[in-house]
What does this fold into?
Amino acid sequence: MAETRAKATPGTAPGTAPHRYPLRVQWEDTDAAGIVYYANYLRFIERGRSDVLLRAGIDQQELMREQGLAFAVRSCAIDYLKPARLHEELTILTEFSGASGATLTLAQAVWRGLDELARAKVVLACIDGNGRPKRVPRQVVDLFATLSTNFSQISGTLDSKDG
It folds into this structure.
C-alpha cells in the first residue's frame, strides 16, 4: 500500500522534525576535482547521529564508561544522488525509523539547500564492551523517537537559520 508523506519542515516545532546538523565541505573532504569523496558522506551522517545524542546531553564516552554501552553500525545502505563540492554548506538530517531490542533504525539524508545529495538507512546495534548486543537504553530510544518520521520532501524552511 502506498504511504502518503507530508512535507517535513525542519526546525518548525520541537519533536516534529528531523534533527539538523549543518556542516561546510572542507578541502580534506574532497578529491582533486573538489568533489566530496563518496566515503566522506558516511562521516557526515555519523556526525549528524552523534550530534543528536550530544545536544540531548548524552555523552557516548560517558555511556560506555558508566553503562558499558556503545553503538556500532550494523548495516548502512546509501544512495548517492548528486555531488557536493568544496566549501558548500550542507545539512545532515536524521530521523527515527524504529527500534527493536538492541537496534535503532535511522533514515539520514545530506542536503544542499533544497537539493537532496545522498540518503541512507542506518541500523545501529547497541553493544557492551565485549561486542555483545544489549537493549538500547530507554532515554536513547525516547530521544530518537522525537524525530520526525518523514523528510522525503523538504520545504523551503531547510535554509532557515532558526530552530
The beta strands are 19-24, 69-80, 89-100, 103-112, 115-128. Helices lie at 40-55, 60-67, 138-145.
